[in-house]
Write a sequence for this structure.
């Protein structure tokens, strides 16, 4: 079995990246695994005997997508592939669908969420998703959405949560000490509107503003970067809590932040999964999160975290106060979260689910024929 992967993640071009290491393991499952990604200059990179990555080149997004199509088409003409897997349900999926039809091979879509589900992307997703031979998604929540919103048959869907190496994470605990004498809430992620980090800042304002007894006792650490950063700084200033908010920017290694925080916040309006929540749980942090992604599946309200309605500032403030004031609750929720993630599929089980989905794409295509 040979797989052709259409991806947007250019870190595959770095042989030392975590993605490159993961993809090499994918290649060990099959006869060959080829990845095509957008970039500036056409080049071929050999990652292992079975795994190759191609930078398709292109000066802008439109030309990059055109070149992904051209590069993939050229590869399909040169050798036989069994499955095309596309990293999203939008433009890559459309390219994958055209190629799968032309070369009569199975199409698998990887569904990580619906963060950009609007406009032309929505039209493409509505058209392409039901036409995929197999679909791999990261959560039961997404599976339910695919069935209810797109009419996808359940047997076409494989749920494969993103694997996290728990041993590696736990071994890095307390590798750096921060000077802190306050209760620290931590959030990690891209600073974009859908993450709704402004909700955290506004809740902090209710906790720590003015004469509040918590004004000198609580901080919010924001680790990440993105187009919303300046707006979030402005919100913190307007809310009068700029001294309680610390922006650390993007960091390659965030283990030290997890290790030195007291609780973790995720307040996204939408998530496919929520990898940062799993990472926080491996570091023993109690979690407050909105009802998105793995909430209800891994993080259950009152058992392994506190789950609040999306966009509800009052509930967020209430949950933060509970976490600050109840050490036993923090311990119980942190232990519950760690117990929940220990039951997630192992690396070997996750890889087996990937292979199962590829085989499904092949067999269902044969059945259709």
């Amino acid at each position: 079995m040979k797989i052709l992967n259409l991806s947007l993640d250019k870190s595959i071009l770095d042989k030392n990246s975590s993605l490159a290491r993961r993809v090499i393991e994918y290649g060990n499952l099959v006869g060959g695994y080829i990845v095509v990604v957008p970039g500036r200059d056409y080049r071929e990179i050999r990652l292992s005997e079975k795994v190759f990555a191609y930078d398709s080149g292109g000066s802008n997004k439109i030309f990059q997508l055109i070149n992904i199509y051209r590069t993939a088409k050229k590869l399909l003409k040169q050798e036989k592939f069994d499955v095309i897997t596309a990293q999203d349900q939008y433009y890559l999926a459309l390219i994958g669908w055209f190629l799968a039809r032309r070369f009569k091979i199975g199409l698998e879509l990887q569904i990580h969420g619906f963060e950009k589900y609007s406009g032309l992307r929505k039209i493409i997703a509505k058209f392409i998703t039901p036409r995929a031979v197999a679909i791999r998604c990261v959560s039961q929540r997404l599976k339910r959405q695919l069935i209810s919103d797109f009419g996808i048959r359940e047997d076409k869907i494989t749920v494969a949560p993103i694997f996290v190496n728990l041993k590696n994470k736990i071994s890095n605990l307390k590798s750096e000490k921060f000077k802190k004498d306050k209760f620290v809430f931590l959030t990690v992620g891209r600073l974009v509107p859908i993450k709704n980090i402004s909700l955290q800042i506004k809740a902090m304002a209710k906790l720590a503003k003015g004469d509040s007894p918590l004004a000198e006792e609580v901080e919010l650490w924001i680790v990440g970067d993105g187009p919303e950063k300046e707006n979030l700084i402005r919100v913190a200033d307007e809310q009068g809590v700029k001294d309680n908010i610390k922006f650390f920017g993007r960091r390659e290694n965030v283990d030290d932040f997890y290790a030195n925080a007291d609780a973790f916040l995720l307040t996204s309006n939408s998530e496919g999964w929520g990898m940062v929540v799993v990472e926080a749980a491996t570091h023993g942090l109690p979690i407050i999160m909105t009802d998105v992604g793995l909430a209800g599946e891994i993080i259950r309200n009152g058992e392994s975290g506190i789950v609040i309605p999306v966009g509800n500032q009052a509930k967020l403030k209430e949950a933060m106060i509970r976490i600050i004031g109840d050490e036993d609750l923090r311990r119980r929720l942190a232990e519950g979260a760690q117990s929940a993630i220990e039951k997630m599929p192992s690396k070997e089980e996750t890889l087996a689910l990937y292979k199962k989905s590829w085989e499904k794409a092949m067999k269902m295509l044969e059945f259709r024929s």
